Amino acid sequence: MVDVTPAASDGRPEPVNLVIGEEELLAERAVQEVVVRARAADPETEVRRLRTSEVDAQELAEHLSPSLFAEGRVVVLSAAQEAGKDMVAAVLRYAAEPADGIVLVLQHQGGARGKSFADDLRKAGAAVTRCERLTRPAERADFVRAEVRRLGGKITGDAVDVLLEAVGSELRELASAAGQLVADTGGVVDEKAVRRYHRGRAEASGFTVADKVVAGDREGALEALRWALVLGVAPVLVADALADAVRTLAKVGAAGRGDPNRLAGTLGMPPWKIRKAQGQVRSWRPEGLTVAFAAAAEANADVKGAAADPEFALERAVRRIIDARDIR
Question: What are the backbone angles phi and psi of residue 43, rounded to the nearest 5°?
Answer without folding.
Answer: -60, -20
